[in-house]
Task: inverse folding
């Protein structure tokens, strides 16, 4: 490039163009300190870096959708966001304080009064008696176990009696069936200890 020529423009690829229209790649220094010579560019040559890419406006608008926010809406300011976050933190701290206070009350052993059914015109004694009646009565676990065991024994006793009837009729029985027939008296004795008769029915207790 002549020393008097001035650079009018520089492209993206680094090609410089003078006011007279001459294009060239300016000289540069290599990492080792040596100089690269200036390279003249033939007129009309455009490297790929300088070729403009066609952009479809519709496609670009679709690609950038949502980035500009809602049309006509005012952008949220940082102050409003900070104020909301501060309020949320305060509310969270208040909820945590209430939880701790409730937990401390439970630990101290606050007495909870039982539910009492209020009867119009009733005295305190009658009200307490009504609350006792309202409480469900827990079933006797021992009686339930006895009845459960008695039902099982009754089932075994019925099977043993059926097998004894077959034996009396002359039908052949298997060894394990003979064992069941031999346990009839033992089953009746176990039912008697549980308070049931030979038919598996509960005996009624007579009051003296």
Result:
């Amino acid at each position: 490039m002549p020393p008097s020529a001035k650079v009018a423009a520089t492209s993206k690829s680094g090609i410089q163009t003078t006011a007279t229209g001459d294009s060239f790649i300016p000289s540069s220094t290599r990492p080792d300190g040596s100089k690269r010579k200036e390279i003249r560019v033939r007129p009309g040559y455009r490297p790929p870096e300088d070729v403009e890419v066609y952009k479809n406006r519709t496609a670009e608008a679709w690609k950038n959708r949502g980035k500009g926010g809602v049309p006509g809406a005012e952008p949220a300011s940082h102050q409003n966001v900070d104020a909301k976050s501060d309020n949320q933190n305060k509310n969270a701290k208040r909820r945590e304080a209430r939880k701790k206070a409730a937990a401390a009350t439970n630990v101290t052993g606050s007495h909870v009064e039982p539910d009492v059914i209020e009867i119009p015109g009733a005295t305190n004694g009658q009200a307490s008696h009504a609350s006792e009646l309202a409480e469900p009565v827990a079933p006797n676990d021992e009686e339930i176990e006895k009845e459960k065991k008695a039902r099982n024994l009754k089932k075994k006793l019925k099977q043993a009696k059926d097998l004894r009837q077959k034996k009396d009729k002359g039908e052949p029985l298997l060894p394990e069936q003979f064992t069941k027939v031999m346990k009839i008296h033992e089953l009746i004795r176990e039912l008697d200890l549980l308070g049931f008769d030979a038919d598996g029915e509960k005996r009624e207790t007579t009051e003296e």
